[in-house]
TrEMBL record:
<keyword id="KW-0378">Hydrolase</keyword>
<keyword id="KW-0145">Chemotaxis</keyword>
<feature type="active site">
    <location>
        <position position="203"/>
    </location>
</feature>
<dbReference type="InterPro" id="IPR011006">
    <property type="entry name" value="CheY-like_superfamily"/>
</dbReference>
<dbReference type="InterPro" id="IPR008248">
    <property type="entry name" value="CheB-like"/>
</dbReference>
<feature type="domain" description="Response regulatory">
    <location>
        <begin position="5"/>
        <end position="122"/>
    </location>
</feature>
<keyword id="KW-0963">Cytoplasm</keyword>
<dbReference type="Pfam" id="PF00072">
    <property type="entry name" value="Response_reg"/>
</dbReference>
<keyword id="KW-0597">Phosphoprotein</keyword>
<comment type="similarity">
    <text>Belongs to the CheB family.</text>
</comment>
<feature type="modified residue" description="4-aspartylphosphate">
    <location>
        <position position="56"/>
    </location>
</feature>
<dbReference type="InterPro" id="IPR001789">
    <property type="entry name" value="Sig_transdc_resp-reg_receiver"/>
</dbReference>
<feature type="active site">
    <location>
        <position position="299"/>
    </location>
</feature>
<feature type="domain" description="CheB-type methylesterase">
    <location>
        <begin position="165"/>
        <end position="355"/>
    </location>
</feature>
<dbReference type="Pfam" id="PF01339">
    <property type="entry name" value="CheB_methylest"/>
</dbReference>
<dbReference type="InterPro" id="IPR035909">
    <property type="entry name" value="CheB_C"/>
</dbReference>
<comment type="function">
    <text>Involved in chemotaxis. Part of a chemotaxis signal transduction system that modulates chemotaxis in response to various stimuli. Catalyzes the demethylation of specific methylglutamate residues introduced into the chemoreceptors (methyl-accepting chemotaxis proteins or MCP) by CheR. Also mediates the irreversible deamidation of specific glutamine residues to glutamic acid.</text>
</comment>
Length: 355
């Protein structure tokens, strides 16, 4: 079986060595070359024609975004960005995602002894996914292998209590992961200013969630912000989970509020879509519209099923328009969604159901 060939591009020799060792540790991957800057990378790409690149966001001579823009114009190929968890790194990485980068991983710390296994699993899975692993295989291969997988029970107990009576006010709950930043932007930018209130859990680092919200806010007719604990959910507003907190929806009378929770990772993620969707199932019920967008794994599938059981209308993104059909595919196969739509049709359906 032919190995997936990878070129590692980073200005740090130590990081190049570490990433190469991690990727070469998997029998399906082979680092065929490394490069210290984009000019070296250009020659190595011509020589080796790799399946995937890992690309440092910030480099001398030519930054990663400029290189990526040229690459996608002249020789498109799967790219996993390697990003520093800083505000500047977040802005550049989000721009890279808009230009067509497949996904991103945190730049490895040089003292990885305590977290090397988890970090290795993440970058290996994302490189494999970028190389074009089939969606049905992706769920098996790309999910991080860890000892414990908590469910939403760790944050919010499953309840059989009566769901509040249906009101005229809708709440839209969106979950996403790999490819989700661009998918979310596409949906939000197609919605009018009078759209229902929207809550979003996107798997994203803590330093990225606020810059991501700011970026979409500038492009959308909606008021988009990082969610804050206790704020009321209003029509025309979008609340994105902080990258290190679970986002839940609570109800008091006829009003809905954001609640943030600092509990453990659920379904291997914090924030977790399962946590958001369970809270929506229990507190919003038939007033809710659930949306599952592109992403690896199956976080949110069970929560979306609970939403359906409590009367919500659910939609998943179709396979063709998804970067990865793991999360929407898992929800659809579970029977949690009534509709499967291409990305560019979801906003229209939200407004149709939100009337």
């Amino acid at each position: 079986m032919k190995k997936i060939s990878v070129i590692v591009i980073d200005d740090s020799a130590l990081v190049r060595k570490l990433l190469s060792e991690i990727l070469n540790s998997d029998p399906e991957l082979e680092v065929v070359a490394t490069a210290g800057d984009p000019y070296q990378a250009r020659e190595k790409i011509k020589q080796f024609n790799p399946d995937v690149l890992t690309l440092d966001v910030e480099m001398p001579k030519m930054d990663g975004v400029t290189f990526l823009r040229n690459l996608m114009r002249l020789r498109p190929m799967p790219v996993v960005m390697v990003s520093t968890l800083t505000e500047k790194g977040a802005q550049i990485t989000l721009e890279a995602m808009a230009l067509g980068a497949f996904d991103f991983v945190e730049k490895p710390k040089l003292d990885l002894s305590q977290t090397l296994a988890t970090y290795s699993d993440e970058i290996i899975s994302k490189v494999k996914a970028a190389a074009g692993v089939q969606p049905e295989q992706l769920n098996q291969k790309a999910m991080l292998q860890v000892d414990e997988r908590l469910t939403a029970d760790a944050i919010i107990a499953k309840s059989s209590k009566n769901i509040p009576l249906k009101t005229t006010e809708k709440i839209v709950a969106i979950g996403a992961s790999t490819g989700g930043t661009e998918a979310i932007k596409t949906v939000l930018c197609a919605l009018p200013a009078n759209a229902p209130g929207i809550v979003i859990t996107q798997h994203i680092p803590a330093s990225f969630s606020a810059p991501f919200a700011d970026r979409v806010n500038k492009m959308s007719a909606l008021n988009v912000s990082q969610a804050e604990d206790g704020e009321q959910i209003l029509p025309g507003h979008v609340y994105i989970a902080p990258g290190d907190k679970h986002l839940l929806v609570e109800r008091s009378g006829a009003r809905y509020y954001c609640r943030l929770n600092d509990g453990p990772a659920v379904s291997r993620h914090k924030p977790s879509v399962d946590v958001l969707f369970r809270s929506v199932a229990q507190n919003v019920g038939a007033n809710a519209i659930g949306i599952m967008l592109t992403g690896m794994g199956d976080d949110g599938a069970r929560g979306m099923m609970e939403m359906k059981e409590n009367g919500a209308s659910n939609i998943v993104q179709d396979e063709k328009s998804s970067v990865v059909w793991g999360m929407p595919g898992a929800a659809y196969k579970l029977g949690a969604a009534e509709l499967m739509l291409p990305l560019d049709k979801i906003a229209q359906e939200i407004m149709k159901q939100g009337r």
